[in-house]
Write a structure and sequence with these properties.
The complex is a heterodimer of chains A (about 450) and B (about 180). With about 450 residues, chain A is of the alpha/beta class. Helix content of chain A is about 45%, strand content about 15%. In chain A, helix 14 links the parallel strand 9 (about 370-375) and strand 10. The relative contact order of chain A is 0.13. In chain B, the strands form 2 sheets. A 4-stranded antiparallel sheet of chain B has the order 2-3-1-4, covered by helices on one side. A 4-stranded antiparallel sheet of chain B has the order 6-7-5-8, with helices on both faces. The chains are: A alpha/beta (about 450), B alpha+beta (about 180).
């Protein structure tokens, strides 16, 4: 038996506040597909993925229809290709990317993630081949997502890998210059990458995870924003009370994700992994993280007070998620992607949000510099420096940080860039001092792990 | 012991439940289950009781009528047949079918006819039509027991078609989503 307000509020969350399941991601372990023969390897991974994922889309649609909650994206994450394909050259890695792209089309999913390497402490043969293949693999495919973890709190920062990734990002942008460097939107550089994240472009299946697993990414910035607004309409509140509202709302949203995820996993006969409650925006008005800042009383994201507001938001989201489910994982916090959030993109364009402030914000939220378009002539060293700074925040704070930066070929700060769909659009952000020599980035080697990593 | 179901209707006011249950207590009836609701200013109550073997439904009806005369209560006593079981026994799921939009004559009749034609069982219905822009004031919500042998896809499609014809927003959702969001 439900009260009228329970029925109406549930429907409002779905209908007007954009509550949805942003991603159901099927993780598939590919270690049993390993072969030295490329043809055999391609055959094995196709067979393994299709075995588990053939009905992924239809099952997600059925479950979404049953509960009246749309599963927006159906995706697949796989074991890191740099590990399971370690025997192959970079040219062969590109062929593997084509195979993965074709598999994604066959099962009708939008992205497959796991064209990845874990190189925080050094690069092995497979890692080098994969990184060398990244620009072509991403430029020649549409649905393959890549990630490279270059730092952890336990290992430090692999600065050789940072510079190589800067080079790979520039090359990937150049190869897709006709699409504003779109290939870079499918490539994340990470510190402390989670092995169970359902969100792209960073999703991959960790080596310690089950053979097949369903991880669910729920969103809901619109729901959080409306909850804050509704309570403030009833009178003044303290920040403690507002944090409580966010926490309770996050709890409800997480429960929705777990309900859907568990049913999808049951119907696919695979294990349920985690629910990742991340406030992931879309370019739709009313589905924005930036609008939450305005609901909290800040004129725009980026003005003084923004870091404190984001810290409160991120923490309340995590607490709500932890209360709702024993299996919360992935990133579970707030995303602040520039081009994917119309409000954030506007704040950046209007000068309220600079690259430096964005970096400061990432020290208290769950991701990093995400979907940030920068001038195409940024130097390798400067881009590597931005990545290294972001990795340092993750390493020192024992949290995930990531860089998904797009150096837009042929375009300058302030010019428009359009990626389309969920990737959105934005003005290119200015990068101060980007043409200056930066010898620091050329030293190479590894920045040692911080003292607080010595816990054994 | 006899199992009896007593329904009580009246214009709502303080003391209705007290009055009825005092009579039942005096007759050594054991209350097993009670439910009541207020619809605008009208009270409706349901009392499921175990009565002594010496007290059949006619005797209880007569006593209740006598003890509540001039109170405006309309009381009806019936035997409860426990052997037939509940319509919700066995496998099935509860779906909430909610329409939002302004009142029109025959709304409940039209939607419930579709549900009945497909053998869906309405186990709870709430309808509020007060006008104005607030969706809370213009909502119908059916909780429907759907068994596996029922063609739920066709029933839901028919309901959606009817809602479109009538210009109503309709949502059909499994009960568990409401539990997940509201029953924490």
């Amino acid at each position: 038996m439900f009260e009228d307000h329970e029925i109406i509020s549930t429907i409002e969350m779905v209908k007007n506040e954009h509550l949805d399941v942003r991603a159901v991601t099927l993780g598939v372990n590919l270690f049993d597909c390993i072969s030295h023969d490329l043809g055999t390897f391609r055959h094995n991974i196709r067979k393994k993925i299709l075995t588990h994922a053939a009905s992924l889309k239809s099952v997600c649609d059925e479950v979404g229809d049953k509960y009246g909650i749309q599963v927006v994206n159906k995706r697949i994450s796989i074991s890191p290709i740099a590990l399971v394909g370690a025997a192959f050259s970079s040219d062969q890695m590109v062929e593997i990317a084509h195979e993965l792209n074709d598999i994604a089309k066959t099962v009708d999913i939008d992205f497959i993630g796991g064209f990845s390497a874990l190189v925080e402490k050094g690069m092995a043969t497979g890692d080098l081949a994969l990184i060398a293949a990244l620009p072509r693999a991403l430029a020649q495919t549409e649905r393959v997502c890549a990630s490279v973890n270059v730092a952890t709190t336990k290992a430090g920062i692999n600065m050789d890998a940072v510079l190589q990734m800067s080079r790979a990002i520039k090359q990937a942008a150049a190869l897709t210059s006709d699409a504003d460097g779109l290939a870079c939107a499918k490539l994340c550089v990470f510190a402390n990458i989670p092995e169970d994240m359902p969100f792209m472009a960073g999703a991959y299946l960790g080596v310690g995870v089950a053979d097949a697993v369903i991880n669910v990414g729920v969103s809901g910035p619109g729901v959080v924003k409306r909850a804050i607004e509704r309570h403030l309409e009833n009178g003044p509140m303290t920040l403690g009370n507002i944090a409580e509202v966010i926490k309770r709302t996050a709890c409800k949203v997480t429960r929705v994700g777990e309900l859907i995820g568990r049913e999808v996993a049951k119907n696919l006969d695979v294990r349920f992994g985690v629910v990742d409650l991340s406030l992931a925006p879309t370019p739709t008005v009313g589905d924005s993280i930036g609008e939450i800042f305005q609901a909290l009383g800040l004129s725009h994201i980026g003005v003084p007070g923004s870091t404190a507001a984001l810290a409160m938001l991120n923490d309340a989201v995590k607490k709500g998620g932890a209360f709702a489910s024993s299996h919360v994982g992935g990133l579970s916090g707030a995303f602040i992607p520039v081009s994917e959030d119309l409000n954030i993109a506007h704040a950046a364009h209007q000068g309220y949000l600079s690259l430096e402030k964005l970096e400061a914000l990432t020290s208290v939220c769950s991701v990093g510099l995400d979907m940030v378009p920068v001038p195409g002539d940024i130097t390798e060293e400067t881009l590597a420096g931005i990545i290294a700074d972001e990795m340092a925040i993750g390493m020192i704070n024992a949290k995930t940080t990531a860089c998904r930066i797009i150096p837009v070929p042929g375009k300058k700060a302030g010019e428009s860039v359009y990626f389309g769909g969920l990737l959105g659009e934005a003005k290119i952000m200015a990068v101060p001092h980007m043409m200056e020599t930066n010898a620091f980035m050329r030293y190479g080697g590894r920045i040692p792990a911080p003292i607080h990593s010595l816990k054994n | 012991m006899n199992k009896l179901i007593i329904t009580v209707l009246a214009k709502d006011r303080p003391g209705i439940i007290a009055h009825v249950t005092q009579v039942l207590f005096a007759l050594e009836c054991n209350l097993e289950n009670v439910n009541q609701m207020i619809l605008q200013d009208q009270f409706a109550g349901f009392f499921l009781v175990e009565s002594p073997l010496s007290l059949d439904k006619d005797s209880l009806q007569a006593t209740l009528d006598d003890q509540t005369k001039d109170t405006g209560l309309v009381i009806h006593v019936n035997d409860l047949d426990e052997n037939n079981g509940s319509a919700m026994d066995g496998k099935g799921d509860i779906f909430l079918i909610t329409t939002i939009g302004p009142d029109q004559k025959g709304l409940v009749a039209r939607f419930s006819a579709i549900i009945a034609r497909h053998h869906g069982n309405i186990i709870n219905l709430k309808a509020v039509f007060k006008g104005g822009p607030d969706p809370r004031n213009n909502v119908m919500s059916y909780q429907v027991w759907v068994t596996p042998d029922l063609d739920s896809a066709t029933m839901f499609a028919d309901l959606r078609t009817k809602a479109t014809e009538l210009g109503l927003d309709i949502r059909i959702q499994h009960k568990n989503i409401f539990d997940a969001i509201n029953k924490i």
